Amino acid sequence: KQAELSSSQVIDAIARLQSQVPLRSLGLSGGEPLLKEGLPDIVDFISSQDIDLIIITNGSMLTPEKISRLQHSNSSIVYEIPLLSYKKETHDTLSGRMGAWDGATNALVDVYHADEIPVAAFVATRLNYKDLFKTGEMAIALGANALMYNRINLSAHNLPNAGQLLPTASMIRENLEALEAL
């Protein structure tokens, strides 16, 4: 198992990368980036470099206090939070954790009220593709600034269930029509 980088090592890596290529934006993901000890220091550094920041989180640990600790007056943070269905049970099933829907919906509202940028991320599967339009409406009602759309990406973890998860081309076309209508 690899050792986790310290906050100073992460900052050094970002600085080295920035010295080699111009960085306009940077996404922090994980696992769960809000578990990272020293995340405020990393966010402070990124903000000081005028790099747009995206934090990709499931929202379960995102509280108004954490949002406030990460805020900067000179830049906004985009928080990308999955919203897999307007139906709590479907979202929780696809997330693999009961209570995930509550965490995601609360986080979207908290980010909106903090004047940061909430983005809802919808990942289409055979199990939720029909929920897209109502989920998009719900995302807007919760304050989402944008709705990202993707189909599920297969990995070693979900490959055995590909036939039950991977949407067909016609399902994706149906979703694109729903997005256009939305």
Considering DSSP H and I runs of 4 or more, what fraction of the residues is helical? 40-55%
What ranges have pLDDT less than 50 throughout 5 or more consecutive residues?
A: none
Going across the biggest sheet, name each strand in turn.
1-2-3-4-5
Q: Major beta sheet, specifics?
A: 5 strands, parallel
End-to-end distance, in Å? 44 Å
How would you explain this protein's 3D organization?
This protein is α/β, with parallel strands linked by helices and 182 residues long. Helix content is 44%, strand content 16%. It has eight helices and five strands, in the order αβαβαβααβαβαα. The chain has helices at 7-20, 39-48, 64-70, 88-95, 100-113, 132-141, 162-165, 169-181; strands at 25-28, 52-56, 77-82, 117-124, 146-151. A five-stranded parallel beta sheet has the order 1-2-3-4-5. Helix 1 (7-20) runs parallel beside helix 2. The protein is globular. The model has no long low-confidence stretch (mean pLDDT 94).
Q: Which key features would you list for this structure?
A:
single chain; 182 residues; alpha/beta
A few lines on this structure:
The protein has 182 residues and is of the alpha/beta class. It contains eight helices and five strands, in the order αβαβαβααβαβαα.
